Amino acid sequence: VDQQANASLQQQTSTQHPHVQAFQNNRQEAPGTPLSEPVAVIGIDGIFPGSPDLQSFWKNLVDEADLVAEVPAERWDWREFYGDPNTSKNKMRSKWGAFLSDVDKFDAAFFGISPREADMMDPQHRLFLQVAWHTIEDAGYDPGSLSGRKVGVFAGVQFNDYQALLSSDNIWNE
């Protein structure tokens, strides 16, 4: 990309959305390295422990907040499993974690998903759908306008074990 086109793209995108401006301000490239392609982050969202949105997340980072807490009672009773795993079966030494709030507040109907299917979905999949939708909203797009266009969704995923968990409980046969 030539320098003039790159400057034009930066000027257009930096005035369109605050996330793009923040990205451009924090971008670090090796001196003299030309951009191979322009990149614009036009929508962003995230859910993190103690941070239901990005504004809360950044505030918690700035405040150096400790978001690790005792396992919430509504999740599970840690007392039942707390102990020495070397001397007792099915015990662990931790009663702490960093937890997302409202993970049970998925609106299946909004996404055209039946309640039964939603109950069997990996919770990370449900959260991914919500975050992807909020990212589109944050970018200011009508989701219907994206059909058939070159649009990318990029996500970090940690585990892929929910199907095995469901299979072990024979939930598929109910």
Q: Please, could you describe this protein's structure?
A:
- The chain is mainly alpha-helical and 174 residues long.
- It is built from 6 helices and 2 strands, in the order H-H-H-E-E-H-H-H.
- The chain has helices at 3-14, 18-26, 54-62, 115-120, 123-139, 162-168, and strands at 69-70, 96-97.
- The protein is extended and about 60 Å long.
- The protein starts with a helix and ends in a 6-residue tail after the last helix.
- The mean pLDDT is 79.
Structure in a nutshell:
This protein has helices at 3-14, 18-26, 54-62, 115-120, 123-139, 162-168; strands at 69-70, 96-97. The chain is mainly alpha-helical. The longest helix is centred in the C-terminal third of the chain and has 17 residues, at 123-139.
Write the layout of secondary structure elements.
Layout: H1 3-14, H2 18-26, H3 54-62, E1 69-70, E2 96-97, H4 115-120, H5 123-139, H6 162-168
Antiparallel strand pairs: 1-2
Arithmetic mean pLDDT: 79
Radius of gyration: 21 Å
Largest sheet: 2 strands, antiparallel
Q: List the strand order in the largest sheet.
A: 1-2
How many beta-strand elements?
2
Rough outline: extended
Structural class: mainly alpha
- Low-confidence runs (pLDDT<50, min 5 residues)? none
Rounded to the nearest angstrom, the distance between the terminal CA atoms is 57 Å
SS strand fraction: under 5%
Query: In which range does the helix fraction lie?
Result: 25-40%
**Continuous helix count:** 6
> SSE order, as H and E?
HHHEEHHH
